[in-house]
Structures are given as structure tokens and as C-alpha cells.
User: Fold this.
Amino acid sequence: MKGESSGLIIGISIGVVIGVLLAIFALICLRYHRKRSQIENSSSRRAATIPIRTNGGDACTILSDSSVGTESPKTSGLSPFPWWIGGPKKANVVSASGILEFSYKDLQKATCNFTNVIGQGAFGPVYKAQMLTGETVAVKVLATDSNQGEKEFQTEVMLLGRLHHRNLVNLVGYCAEKGQHMLIYVYMSKGSLASHLYSEKHEQMSWGLRVQIALDVARGLEYLHDGAVPPVIHRDIKSSNILLDQSMRARVADFGLSREEMVNGHPSNLRGTFGYLDPEYISTRAFTKKSDVYSFGVLLFELVAGRNPQQGLMEYVELAAMDTEEKVGWEEIVDSRLGGKFDVQELNEVAALAYKCVNRAPRKRPSMRDIVQVLSRMIKLRHERKYRRHSLPATPDEFSIEMDPPDHRSPMSQHQRVESVDSTADNTSFEV
Assistant:
């Protein structure tokens, strides 16, 4: 009898335990399905209302005050892996970044059936699009016969999903439908830096604006090199990849050739733009942060001289360097369109900095952080001098003293200008 009781108790205990476990399992399944449903609903609502980063207090944080909304965007999948690489669903791009996916139909309507062309590059045509929300964006379409363009598409979606800085062009979303791959960016209304340097459609950029643009670009590159984890090397810094917003603040664009820095990277195929390529990269096929620094140095000289690097800019610089003494003597290369309206000391400091950036030995080039510090200090000192001039009252004698010395602005150089690169941007002038 006692044995039967013990068996009954054990059986009941086992039954209770099994029942409890089944109840717990059922509860877990129920909560899982409810949670999944909530996440999907939340993602759907977020996709319809997520704002493009809006203006802040700083003029260079401009994007847009409107938000991407009713254009049927879909949030990207939550997988930590880029599913399109080597997979069978290459057209269905899934990004772990949360970048919005737009439908082909909505983009076709926004671009007037892909007729509003504003640019053309190796990647494919670029269209201006007006979304139903009123937001103006730029749509870059992958050329269907471009294998390299497809790789650049994948690179930009992967990188720009995690890179966010006020001096980088922001990726709004993408589309991968009907055999087409498209990237949607914030629209930069003033076009490229190259168009302002070389097109007669625009008023000449002041010296102060050129230095500010150089600082904006330097800050963007500093973020890529020192703020991104892992660091990113742009690999294609040039004036046509620097875009300007309505306030004439600069952003770095086109990350199709960009790569994350690798400690033991293997030599790669030579990619980039002639005139901006680091000689060390050409010889070793190894691209480093200092290769970006070299390209930035060329861009600095481009801002100073107003000459196209593909038309002998660096040869022109090397000839001028033979007659310079450290930080002085660079006036002869200055852009004649400035009309002599520049600060001689600043000009020589910028040119000397640029010359350090293009040093043949990469280890002797400054870092982007060093460059940002130099340019920031330069602009700060200029503002302090301007503030002192406006805040301190001057006597008649002081006025006469300031007016007596001759003008030390450099005479205009007589070099030949190279005209290139059209732009649809509006005319503008800016004085820092």
C-alpha cells in the first residue's frame, strides 16, 4: 500500500511538472508572437514618419525640415548580414542599418518617369525627385550594365547606413526593384565644388568661403578616419565629389570606392581619379588614410589656384614650390579670379599645409585631425581680428594710420584657367 502511494505521488508530481513546463512554453510562444507583431507595426509606423535629419543651430547641419513619409518606404531587415552578397536574392537588398527602402513606382513618379536628369557619372544618371511630402531628393540610378556600379551600390548602402556626420552627404534610402538599383540622397541645391570653381555660371567664390569649404571637407574626412569604427578610407576625394548645400557648406559625397581600413589589407586594383591619386598608392596598390590626405592636399591647391588637377595643377605647384620659402611665396599660384582679394598670410598657410599633405613620404603627411586644427585656428583668428576691428573705437589719427600703408594684397597671377564641369546650381556669393 505504501508503495502504491509513493508511485501515485511521483506520478502526480511528474504530471504537474510537465503541465507547468507546457504552460510556460505556451506563454513564451504567445508573448513572442505578440512582440513580433508589435515590432512590425512599430517599424511600419516609423518608416512612414522617420525624419531626414533636420536643421540644427549650426548652418552646416542642414538637411531638410520635412520628412520622408507617404512614399511607401519600407524599413530594412534586422539581419546583421548583408544578404545580397553572393546570395540568390541580390535584387532584394537588405541592410542592417535601418535605411528606408522605396518602391520603384514612387521614385518613377517623383522623377517624372526618370526625365529630370541633373547629373551623369560612372555609376549612372542622377535625377532630381520631388516626393509627395514635398521633400526634394537626388536619386542616383545604377547603370544596368555596370558591374562596378553594383558593387558601389552595395558599398554605399552598407557604409552610409552607419556613417552619420554633418559634413557627409546623407543617404535617405534605396530601391532595389525591377532589376534596378537606386540610391536616394539629400538634395544639395548648390551643386558640386567643381562647378563653382570652373563654371562661368557662378559668381566667384571668395577666399573666406574657400577656406571654410576646406575645413568642412577636412571635418568629414576626420570623422571617417578617427570617428568611424572601424575607420573608413574614402579613396575618391575630388572637387566633383564635394557637394554644397543652400548655405554653401560642404559635404563629402560618393562612397562607392570607400573601404573600411584593414590592418593587413592586400593590394587592390588601382581605383580613383587621375590627378588626385597618391603616388605611394599607385606604386604599392595599398590605400591608407594618408592616401586620403594626399587627395585632400590636391583639393586644397585646387581651391587656392582654381586649376583642374587633371590639367597639370601639381606640376604648376612644384614649379612654384621651387621659389617659395617654407610658408611664404605662394602668391604666384593664387586664382586670378579672386582679383587679389585674399589674406596673404592665410594664403601662404593654406598652401604650406597643402604642400605637406602631398609629401611623397606618407609618414610625413599630417593627419586629418591635425589639418582640422590648423584650419579651425586660422578661421578663429580671422574672426577675432574682424571682431576687434568692429568693437574697438578708433580716433581720427588711428584711421589715418590704418589707411596709410599700401595694400599688401597679392597681384593677380596670369595663369590660364581651365574651364570644365557644368552645374545646374544657382549663382551664389559668400563671404566669411
About this structure: The chain is about 40% helix and 10% strand. The first helix runs from residue 2 to 49. Confidence is low (pLDDT under 50) at residues 39-72, 75-96, 395-432. The longest strand covers residues 171-177.
